[in-house]
Design goal:
This protein has 448 residues and is an alpha+beta fold. The protein is built from 13 helices and 23 strands. Bound molecules: adenosine-5'-triphosphate and magnesium ion. Adenosine-5'-triphosphate binds at residues 109, 140, 142, 151-152, 155, 157, 282-285, 317, 319, 321-322.
Amino acid sequence: MRLSQYFLPVLREVPSEAEIASHKLMLRAGMIRQASAGIYTWLPLGFRVLKKVEGIVREEQDRSGAIELLMPTLQQAELWRESGRYDAYGPEMLRFKDRHEREMLYGPTNEELITQVFRGAAKSYRDLPRILYHIQWKFRDEIRPRFGVMRGREFLMKDAYSFDMSVEAARHSYNRMFVAYLRTFARMGLKSIPMVAETGPIGGDLSHEFIILADTGESQVFCHADLLDTPIPPADVDFGSDLTPHIAPWTRHYAATDDKHDEGRFAAEVPQNKRVSARGVEIGHIFFFGTKYSEPMGCRVQGPDGNMVSVQSGSYGIGVSRLPAAIIEASHDDAGIVWPVPVAPFEVGLVNLKPGDKAADRACEGLYARLEGAGVSVLLDDTQERPGGKFATMDLIGLPFQLIVGPKGLKGGEVEIKDRKSGARTTASPEAAVKRLVGEVRAQRILA
Ligand code: ATP
Ligand code: MG
């Protein structure tokens, strides 16, 4: 992409309405614009990141065996009356009527809809287990939308739903998603901590919120420092009983908690030098709820013995449109965003210091073609802005590598590579620079 022909409305001033780093930087870097309270347009640069994040979420869901479908954003109130949630759900639900006076709503979540789909299709135990998911916009009329896309009213969520014959089998589905979540977030450069969450009246230990540590986070987290270094189980781990040792460190009661009452016990049980008490951002939430929807909604299948059984289910959410902001909270500096390669909007920023100079133009065109030819995505700054402004923009938008080309360097047969994260600058011949960048980008694209 050539910057002279792109749509990248960066802001030099820090927007006054933004309180936290990610919100400020997303506005400044031309990633998002507010349409109305808690509702955002994703500008081209932001949309590229959103799609990369969505792609990683999808790949890991598919790898875990979950099956993608797409449910609508609009739902009928009638369905929510079946589960009893229509009246129970508060003013966060956006309700309206269509021209025939039918009560409708903009889906804040999809348990009812997926249960309706599944009960109409699954007849016997042979149709189970299944995990179905979609990536779709949700609307929740949050009382206090804030921090940009971090807490929006309209937001993109991946929500998966599992269907099993027994509680035991449902635990395997839960474990499968648990591991998929750890892998998903690690691929985005995030260190996620599964935190034991409230399960409400259903009880049990089968609910975890996935948190990343950030000073501006809305959740309180207490955890054992060793959790931060616990290795992620491989994707092909046996999801049967064998899985338990793999995730035990996170599911043990003292894994991580947000419970104030536990604070004292936390202090008593975890040695001082191992206590982590921090703020966190919730990026995912998994939940086993048994027959909460299948029973009232009549989602039953025939078991091997011929008896009808209510299906055991769980739901598994990821805040897809919250993630770009969460990643920025975890990875930025005073100059701007620092994208990890797997979610970067472009992988290399190619800076032509003097467009119009024959040698600089020719070198940049050659580098652009060779990098793109090798499958590396490049944003070429071919604008007439002064070098200082170009550097500031590149640092702000946070592409992992900058390749800086000017007439002076070219005379000596050299271009400059800047690593955005470390700030390290090195010079190389154009050929060597291409080779190095292609190698680095390819190496960093995959899960470490
Ligand atoms: P929160 O406590 O942050 O309101 P929640 O418990 O209501 O989250 P879930 O219903 O579990 O969230 O939704 C799954 C995921 O969707 C959350 O883990 C979060 O990452 C994301 N999410 C929830 N609400 C919002 C929102 N208003 N804006 C952006 N993302 C959201
Ligand atoms: Mg909420």
